[in-house]
Amino acid sequence: MTADDFPPDCRATLTINLGAVITNYKHCGKLASTAECAAVVKANAYGMGSEQVARTLFNQAGCRSFFVANLTEAITLRRVVPTAVIYVLNGIFPAHTDYFIHHNIRPVLNDPGQIKLWSELDQTGTRPCAVHFDTGINRLGLSSEETRSFVTDTALRKKLNIALIMSHLACADDAANPMNSQQLNKFTAIRQHFPDVAASLANSGGILLGPDYHFDLVRPGLMIFGGNPHRGKEAENIDPVCRISGRILQLRQLESGQTVGYGVSWTADRPCHIAIINIGYADGYPQLFNNCGRVYINGRMLPVIGRVSMDMIAVDVSELNPDEINVRTGVELLGEHITLEMASEVSTLSQYEILTGVRERYQRIYQ
Ligand SMILES: *Cc1c(COP(=O)(O)O)cnc(C)c1O
User: Fold this and answer.
1) Which atom of ligand 1 is nearest to the CA of 46?
2) Which atom of ligand 1 is nearest to the CA of 40?
3) What is the pLDDT of residues 88-120, one digit of tens each?
4) 69 CA to centre of ligand 1 in angstroms
5) Catalytic residue among 26, 42, 281, 362
C-alpha cells in the first residue's frame, strides 16, 4: 500500500459513458444532415471532463470543431486536440491576443471593439474568426444597429477572415415560442450579406427545431451529454452519459412521529425503514432536492426525505423488502432510471445545472 493508494468503494462514483457521448454526437450529426456538427465543451464539457470528451469526439466520432466559453478552456483544449478548430465564445480582449495567435484559437467577435482589435492585429486578413450577431437574446453579439453598419463596411470586412457567422437562440427549448422564427428571420437576413461564409444558429434545442435552423454548422452541448432540450419529446435516441451512484451507509427503523435530518423537515407518518446514502450537497447534489429528490434502488424509484446534508441524504426504503438491501447496496441518483429530465423536473434545476454542478469528490470512472 502506498500513500496514493485508496481503498475501493469508499466514495460515491460519477461514471461518464464516453460511448454514449459518441452515440449522442452522431445522433446530433444525423439530425443536422448536411450541416457540420461541432461540439460545445465549455465548463469542462458540462462537468463531464473536457479532456476525455474532446479526445473521444475528435478521435472516435470525427468532430473537428469545438466551442468553449473562455480562453483558458481553449488553451487547455488545444493540448488535447492539436489540429481541431477551437472557438472562444466569450470573445477577445486586448491582453489575450497573443494567446489566440500562439495557440491558433479563433475568437468569436462579439462587438465592434473586438472586431477592430482582431482586424488591426491581422492586417492580412488571414486569421480565421467568427462574428456573432445578436438576434434577440441580448447576451453577446452585435446589436441590430451595429450589425447594419458592419455588414456594409466593406473596408473593415476585407481586413477579416470571417470563417463563421453565428447567432444564438433564446427559446430553442420551446418549439412553440414565436421568438424562434423571429430570430431565424433576422439571422437569415444577416446571412444574405455573407453568401460565402458558413453560418451557425442552432444549439441542441435549435437542432430539434428542424432543418431551417441548421444552416452550415450546429453547436450542440446538452444533447451530447445526454440532456433532452425538448422535454418529453424526441429523447429516444439520446443516451444518458452521466451516472451518479452512491451506497447505503446505514439503515434505520423509524417509528411514526420520528423526524429525519437537519431542520426536522420530514416526519414519519407511519413506522418506516430509511437508508442513509453517501452523497450530499458537497458532491453537487443540492438542497433543491430536499424532500423531492428520487433515487433508484433495486428496481424501485424511492423518495429523498428531509434535507440534503453536506455528505449524505436519507431515502425512504419502506417499499423494499428488507432482505434485498443492506449497508453498501448501490443507489442511483442520476443515470438510466433517474434521468436528467426527471431530476430537473422534481428539483426545478435545469438539466444544465445538474450536469455542471457535479463536484470533485466523486470517484470518476470513464467508460
Ligand atoms: C452553450 C452554448 C451552446 C450549446 O447549447 P446547448 O443548449 O447546450 O446545446 C451553443 N451556442 C452557444 C453560443 C452557447 O453559449
Assistant:
1) 8
2) 4
3) 999 999 999 999 999 999 999 999 999 999 999
4) 10
5) 42
> What are φ and ψ of residue 264, in 5° steps?
40, 55
Label residue 8 left, alpha or beta by phi (over 0 means left) and psi (-120 to 50 means alpha).
beta
Bridge partners (DSSP) of residue 133 are 142
How far, in Å, are 83, 319, 333 from residue 298 at the CA level?
Answer: 46, 11, 12
- Mark whether 262 is an active-site residue: yes
Determine which residue's CA is closest to atom 13 belonging to ligand 1. 168
3-state secondary structure 335-357: CCCCCHHHHHHHHCCCHHHHHHC
Q: How confident is the model at residue 234 (pLDDT cuts 50, 70, 90)?
A: low
Domains and CATH numbers, the chain: 18-225 (3.20.20.10), 242-366 (2.40.37.10)
CB-defined site of ligand 1, < 6 Å: 40, 42, 89, 168, 203-205, 219-222, 229
Atom of ligand 1 nearest to the CA of 173: 7
pLDDT digits (tens, 9 = 90+) for 137-184: 999 999 999 999 999 999 999 999 999 999 999 999 999 999 999 999
The answer to whether 42 is a known catalytic residue is yes
Which pLDDT tens digit goes with each residue over 313-334?
Answer: 999 999 999 999 999 999 999 9
- Say how far apart CA 238 and CA 96 lie, in whole Å: 37
